[in-house]
From TrEMBL:
<protein>
    <recommendedName>
        <fullName>histidine kinase</fullName>
        <ecNumber>2.7.13.3</ecNumber>
    </recommendedName>
</protein>
<keyword id="KW-1133">Transmembrane helix</keyword>
<dbReference type="InterPro" id="IPR036890">
    <property type="entry name" value="HATPase_C_sf"/>
</dbReference>
<feature type="transmembrane region" description="Helical">
    <location>
        <begin position="33"/>
        <end position="54"/>
    </location>
</feature>
<dbReference type="GO" id="GO:0004673">
    <property type="term" value="F:protein histidine kinase activity"/>
</dbReference>
<dbReference type="GO" id="GO:0005524">
    <property type="term" value="F:ATP binding"/>
</dbReference>
<keyword id="KW-0067">ATP-binding</keyword>
<dbReference type="Pfam" id="PF02518">
    <property type="entry name" value="HATPase_c"/>
</dbReference>
<dbReference type="InterPro" id="IPR050351">
    <property type="entry name" value="BphY/WalK/GraS-like"/>
</dbReference>
<feature type="domain" description="Histidine kinase">
    <location>
        <begin position="229"/>
        <end position="450"/>
    </location>
</feature>
<dbReference type="GO" id="GO:0007234">
    <property type="term" value="P:osmosensory signaling via phosphorelay pathway"/>
</dbReference>
<keyword id="KW-0547">Nucleotide-binding</keyword>
<dbReference type="InterPro" id="IPR005467">
    <property type="entry name" value="His_kinase_dom"/>
</dbReference>
<feature type="domain" description="PAS">
    <location>
        <begin position="110"/>
        <end position="149"/>
    </location>
</feature>
<dbReference type="InterPro" id="IPR004358">
    <property type="entry name" value="Sig_transdc_His_kin-like_C"/>
</dbReference>
<keyword id="KW-0902">Two-component regulatory system</keyword>
<keyword id="KW-0808">Transferase</keyword>
Length: 450
């Protein structure tokens, strides 16, 4: 409606200007100079009125956009004018101003809502620009670091120089663990960095969480599971010894004391010998079990050196060919890049790979088209890894959390210490080992190095 009225106003004024110009020319050529002067004056006035009309409309629109730009929503245009088109224009601008103001208020409320959520979040959040300035830090991060206010990462140097060095070098999509000690308590901080872009500027969003409590709970849970397994294994060994000992004791001790040698028969002596052999065997198993426990606790510190990943995997492949005598399992080796080198203890990592490969080989059983793939490469985060993958039946979901517990095993033979040793070796290397498995889709063990 507004544009239609303005359009009609412009057409009318242009028609009047054109008519005045024609009459001016007509009377001028008729030598009626008084009338031509009159229409000249009319023409000039009409032109001035047109310019004023356009400027008035343009100024209102310019004022309106300037007010919106400066977030000034107090600007109001009069809606009672003699000119209908301008009155409608003012009304429309006022309505648009009210709508934008409402949207702006909703946006501000929403922004305050999200900011309050971030401020009250149980994890620390801060954003850092390329120059190290901290643009935002919530209350949690200030409590974790016991420092307020946080404006620049150089302030971390006053908290702990190692913490400053960590923040100075942290890269996007990188995770770090840092132990912070102060006069109040010790905190185990987990840091995760993510790259974001705001208003065309690259920022680093860092999330910090105190995982000390979670680690304590995890450690307690691990001890409970370990004690459960140890109790189970020891009881399985001790129970037969106790039972057989009681049976043999009955041969030699009666109600009236020790039994006379003359009362023994050949069967009792034979059973005694058999029982003692079982006791000896069970005792040997228990000794072997304890020795396994001792070897788990006394792993030597890794003697690291640069090792060719290709040569390492080829060596493991050669060792596994001795296990895969019938050749029913297809072994594959893949290394990218070919010249990849790992800074590791070759003996310990070879032990890990052989153990994981044997487990994979045993899980495949008589499966057709059985395959084990040993691969090594570099992750997107720049970390080197070795993966042992098989297309076996997978690990049941209920056992995934148990397989790294020392002495836990689902096999009829074995000590159940292999995977826990593998995890301990990777821990000593500053790395990690993770399992990914799905029933009927295979299993993958990934060793990642720091």
């Amino acid at each position: 409606m507004v544009s239609r009225n303005i359009y009609l106003q412009l057409i009318l004024r242009i028609i009047l200007i054109s008519l005045s110009a024609l009459l001016l020319a007509f009377f001028y050529f008729k030598t009626k100079y008084v009338l031509s002067g009159f229409f000249l004056l009319i023409l000039v006035l009409q032109t001035i009125f047109l310019i004023q009309y356009i400027n008035q409309t343009n100024r209102k629109i310019a004022y309106f956009f300037d007010a919106i730009k400066n977030e000034d929503f107090t600007l109001r245009f009069p809606e009672k004018l003699s000119v209908k088109s301008l009155e409608e224009l003012n009304h429309s601008l006022n309505m648009l101003n009210a709508m934008i103001q409402e949207i702006h208020l909703k946006k501000q409320a929403q922004e305050q809502y999200y900011q309050e959520i971030i401020k009250q979040a149980a994890i620390g959040i801060l954003t850092i620009n390329s120059k190290g300035h901290i643009l935002f830090a919530n209350r949690t991060i200030e409590k974790l670091l016991n420092y307020h206010p946080l404006n620049h990462i150089k302030q971390f140097n006053q908290i702990d120089p190692k913490l400053y060095a960590l923040f100075a070098d942290i890269q996007p999509f990188e995770g770090k663990i840092f132990q912070l000690a102060n006069e109040r308590e010790n905190s185990q901080l987990a840091l995760k960095a993510t790259a974001i872009t705001v208003d065309g500027k690259s920022l680093l969003l860092v999330v910090v969480q105190d995982i000390h409590k979670e680690l304590d709970e995890k450690e307690t849970d691990s001890w409970v599971r370990l004690i459960r397994v140890l109790t189970h294994e020891i009881m399985n060994t001790i129970t037969p010894i106790t039972s057989i000992s009681e049976s043999i004791l009955k041969y030699y001790k009666g109600k009236n004391g020790l039994v006379s040698v003359k009362e023994f028969n050949e069967e009792q002596i034979s059973n005694t010998v058999k029982g003692l052999e079982v006791i000896k065997e069970q005792g040997g198993d228990l000794m072997q079990f304890v020795q396994s426990y001792r070897s788990f606790l006394s792993l030597p510190k890794p003697d690291k050196a640069l090792v060719s990943a290709q040569r390492l995997l080829d060596k493991v492949l050669l060792l596994m060919n001795q296990e895969n005598v019938q050749g029913k399992v297809d072994f594959k080796v893949q290394v990218k890049p070919k010249d990849l080198e790992l800074f590791i203890d070759e003996k310990q990592i070879t032990q890990n790979l052989v153990n994981l490969s044997k487990n994979a080989l045993q899980s495949l059983g008589e499966k057709e088209n059985a395959m084990i793939k040993l691969s090594s490469g570099i992750t997107r985060q720049g970390k080197k890894f070795i993966e042992v993958w098989d297309n076996g039946p997978g690990i049941p979901p209920e056992l995934i959390d148990e397989i790294f517990v020392p002495f836990f095993t689902t096999k009829t033979t074995g000590t159940g210490i292999g995977l826990s040793l593998s995890k301990q070796i990777m821990h000593l290397h500053g790395g990690s080992i993770k399992v990914h498995s799905a029933p009927s889709r295979g299993t993958s063990f990934v060793m990642t190095f720091a």
